[in-house]
Specification:
This protein is of the alpha+beta class. Helix content is about 25%, strand content about 35%. It has ten helices and 20 strands. The strands form four sheets. Strands 6-7-8-3-9-10 form a six-stranded mixed β-sheet, sandwiched between helices. A five-stranded antiparallel β-sheet has the order 13-12-11-14-20. A five-stranded antiparallel β-sheet has the order 15-19-16-17-18. Helix 3 crosses helix 4, helix 3 packs parallel to helix 5 and helix 5 runs parallel beside helix 6. The radius of gyration is 25 Å and the shape is globular.
Amino acid sequence: MALLETVNLEQKYDGHQVLKDINLNVNRGEVFALIGPTGAGKTTLLRLLDLLELPASGKIRFEGVHVPRSGKHRLEIRRRMSFVQQKPLVFTMSVYDNVACGLRWRREGGESVRKKVDNALHLVNLAEYSNRNAKTLSGGETQRVAIARALVTEPEVLFLDEPTANLDPVSTSKVEEVLAHVIKERKATIVMATHDMSQGQRLADRIGVLIGGEMLQIGSPNEIFCTPKNTEVAELVGVENILKGVISEKDDNLVTIQVNGSTIQAVSDFETGEAIYAFIRPEDITFTHKKDLTSARNMFSGKVTRMHQVGPLVRIEVDCGFNLLGVITKTSAEELNFDIGRKIYASFKATAIHVIRRWV
């Protein structure tokens, strides 16, 4: 039985639909990440799950029991959850007192508070900051205080809204280390919204893709990033080669796809004549000067139309009769002496292609 579940959940603000027909479940001890573009409804969904808002329609179940729209039972369930906002606020008091406030509001005191606060501060690696004024901390340290404050009440579900959105890379790394430690030590149930795709891959057991208020796909990180169900998900997770084609031949599970007068081979269960999209990740494409022997079933000659450096990588676009985008290191690009207009070869394996049906 799922710890947390939604059934046909919807939300509207001033007549505008923000969430539509959301059905998901979160298991105890699971880390579930929500990814999607800005404005997709991630924060709204977290607030509904945390019982901070009432939905326009639909149900939320906690441990299989429907959560009422008001009353004592709803409050009791709400007290079993904690929420860390994207920009958490800290009070003008010590780090210790900031973390302790939730316990004191619940009328805990004495040795119990001291022990729980000390444990929470150790968990987020801020024990030595106990007496510091929380207002003097950096952004990353403030976020860790907020996480400790949320954990100190020992919630059954922890909600995180973009936990590293406003942090520099060093602070982001430290917060992720804390979260990984919390996941390991507490076996915590966490639902987090993040704009950072790789963060979702690193931390989550499962990922939900929310676009335009609709949950378009739920699955493991590998399923989301390697086998997206539609073009919207593919574009979001960085599958930048989306080729429109038709299956012209099939030999067992090896299919031949017609794409702009060219043919590519892929592994697929679809039948001859079906209209499809073929997804190829940029990192799965290999570029060479010569038509070398290779195990890859797909090799095309083309001209470099664009090169763009992004940090240590170079994005290369090639016109092969259809456009292909690949990524290589800056060092490799220099060694191969690639340049605009140069003829090169692009190759990729049949197993590197993910095929989905195209509705026409």
